[in-house]
Structures are given as C-alpha cells and as structure tokens.
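Researcher: Re-running this chain for the archive, since the previous output was lost when a drive failed. Same request as before.
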Amino acid sequence: MWETIVDHLYVYIGAYMFLALALILFTGLPVAFALGGVSVIFGLIAVSLDFLDLAVFFQVIQRIWGGDGASGAIQNPILVAIPCFVFMGTMLEKSRVAEDLLHILQVMLRRVPGGLALSVTVMGTIMAATTGLIGASVVMMTLLALPTMLKRGYHPALATGTLAASATLGILIPPSIMLVLMANLLAVSVGNLFIGALIPGLLLSALYFVYIMVVASVKPSLAPPLPDDAIHLKPTNMNNLWLFIGLSVLFIVLAWIASNSHVADFVNWGLMAFLAIFFAAMVIGRREGESLLGGILKGFMPPIFLIVLVLGSIFAGWATPTEAAGVGGFGAMVLAMFNGTLSMDTLRSVVHRTSLTTAMIFMIFAGATAFSTIFRNVYGEDLIIEFIEWLELGPWPLLFLLMGAVFLLGFFFDFLEITLIILPVFAPVIRTLAPEFAPHLGLEPPTNQAQLQYVQSEVIYWFAILIAVNLQTSFLTPPFGFALFYMKGVAPSSVRMQEIYKGIIPFVLLQLVGLGFVLEFPELALWLPRMFFSGGG
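Model: Regenerated structure tokens:
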C-alpha cells in the first residue's frame, strides 16, 4: 500500500505542487510566501521520499543570483535594471513632466473629436516609453486628467476606461519591468524583447485612439469638445523660435562636421548634439513661457529626452538595458531639477518607495525561482508534456489554450504572479513545438541543430510578446484589476466602481483584438528585432 502511494507521488507530485499553489493563492496569502512555502514543503517531501537530492535547494540560491554553480559569481546583472526603472518612474511622478505634457496635448488636439481623451491616450503612450511603473502611472494620470474630463462633461465610463487602459501601456511599451523579468526567465535578450514589444504596444495605443475618435464622433455627448476659451495661450515670440531653430541647426552641423573629420563617430556626436538641443529647449522653453512654442519645448522635449536616453541608447547599441536604466534614472533627476522639484526630501521619498517596490518584486522573483526549480526537478515539466500529449492537442490549439488560461488568470492574479508561474512551466513546451510554428513565422522548418536553435529563439520571442500583450488585460479585468483599484482610490467620490468596470470593457476587447493581430501577423513582434539584430537571437 505504502509503495503504491510512493509510486503515485513520484509520478504526480508536480501536479499536486501546482494544485497546492493555486489553492493557496486564492486564500490571499502574499504570493511570494505562497511560492516559496509550497516549494520548500514539496521539496522536503520529495527529499524524504528520495525523489530529490537535498543539493537542489542550493541550486535555487544559485539561480536567484544567476551564479555559474562553480565560482558563485553573479551572472545576472540584468535584474539591476529593475530598481533603476522603478526609481526613474517614481522620480518622474515628482517632476511634473506629465502635467506639462497633458497641457500641450490638450492644446494640440482641442479641435479633434474627443480631444481630451485622445490627449490622455497619447500622454499614456509617451509616459509608457519613459517608465514601466503602472501603479504610479495610474494614480498620476487619474489625479491629473480625471477631474478635468468630468468637468468638461465626459461620461465617467469613457473617462475612466481611457485613463486605465492608457496608463497601463507601460507594462508593454519599453522600458518595461515585466519584459526585463521575462527576458531573465526565458534567458533571452531584453533588448530584443524591448524592441519587439514596441510595435504591438503602439498598435494597442492606435486601437484606443481610433475607438475614442469613433465614439466621440458618433456620440459627442460622451466626449464633448473643449470650448474655445478653455485654454489660454500667449502669442509665440518669433525671436525665441528662430533662436531655437538656429541652435538646433548649429549643433547638428557641428555633429556632422565632427563625424566626418574623424574626431569621434557620428553616434556619439549625435547624442551630444541631442543633449545640447535638449538643454537649449529647456532654457528657451522657460524663457518663452505659456505659449505654444513654450508648451512644446517644456511639454514634449522632456519625455522625448528620456525616451532617447533609454530606448535610443539600447536600440543604437550605446548601452545595455541595465546601463540604460541607470542613465534613465539620472535623466529623471535632471528633469526634476529643471522643473524645480528636486530636493533632498523628494530624493529621500523616491529612494524609499523604490526600495519597497523593488523588495516586493524581488521577493516574488525569489519565490517563483524556487518554485520553478523544485517543479522542474520533480519532473513537473515532463508531466505537463505527457498531459498535453494525452490531450492530443496540436500546436495551435495548445497555444490558444495557453492564451485563454493567461487571460482567465488575469481576472484573479497580478501580471507578476502570472509571468513568474506560467513562463517557466510552459516555455519549454513552446520550445519543443517551435518547428511546428516555423512556417507561420516565415521560417523554413529546421534541418540541423543551428537552424533549430534559431527557430526556437524566434518562436520564444513571439510567444513572450503574445503573453505580454495578453497580460495587459490583467490590470483591467475584475474582480482584481489592480489599475481599477488604484484609480478608485484617487478618483472623485462621484465616480462609482460600476462605472469604472463598465468603462474598461471596450478597452479589454480592444486588447484582445491587438492580441489577435500579433497572433495572426507575427511580423508585428519580430520585424524590428530582425531588422536591428539580424534575427533577434
């Protein structure tokens, strides 16, 4: 009898481990403790039954730190990007960059149907390219825009839905903390994931933009246009305009001359020219004040400055994602200094919040690493593969099943929990089935090991972007859509939770449409990495 039970556990302990985790997560226990606790308990059970060597627990520590197993040296510097991106996002919240950006966007789009909502969408897209910190983005954008939208007569459902969807784009549009974690879990290039997620992220933003324009055109009462006297601008001083144009041309010419005279390569001088133009814009923008030119220089230039610093440095090969994250943190401090919001109290507050957020992320990461290590060593992956074979599902039904599971999990769990549980378990399965997806990705079926590795790399990048697009819904779907609770916490008391739930429905559907586009047209995720990195391997 005992031998039968032991044999049964040897085969199915991975399944019981996964089931126990699912049940414990629904109890409300912090996910980091749930992942770590289940790993320790089932790991010790496996050791006591001689299914597992106790040395596996030491492998967990090595995997968390990225050790090579011999010297113990840390081989995982990419995770350093996470606290830097968190610091950048938190500092931006204090720098009033979003406030200036929203103002100038309202000016530029005031004649367009739904102009205020479109301004929020564009602001969310631009801010997403400067920070991947969703909680801060939702709170900041809600405080800035929601009272104004309600005052201008916007329907609460449309206003809250637009804000929630736009503010959560930062989890997909790079730089994104989620993409950094995905790259680490999948052992792929975070730079390739960043550039691969750019077009799908902009696609979602475009879908929101089109939807808002259609709704505002068909039912103007839901999104009334801004009255002519809503925004007051003083005339632009043409001397300042010509001064800015002259300085910009001068810096560009100097960069061109320097690059052709072999003083330095064009990339480095181009970066120096851009930085010089930025500082000129800040000085002239402050001098110009509340005019269209001043608004553009003070509203557009700061986020563009950060986007070029972070994403431009990665895509152009100037810096690794980890280095770019540090540069982005410094750039956010520069913007806060220009806006007069940088002080010791601000810096202390930002560092404190960064520490708390980073500790939370790394605790979950450590628990997830323990879970995936123990799960793999008790042959949980083999059990999943055997179960899939028993179901006799082809590659496409399996992929649709996984996408459906991620979508449903988004109703109950945060993106971190889903990412850290799903990817380590199912990525090996997708790698195994990669040759089946090769024709859909425009690739020839592999005939040797080198071609197989290339196809697996392409399929994994595509799969990661699909998961990332799908996880957009996890912030919006009730009952545990975290963006909705962030919003409700700072929204005016007149905004009911039912209106927020109603407002996100069309945007969740648009996110699923975006997912369908990336499923049908893999080039949306793979074209840019192939162009920049010759295949994204």
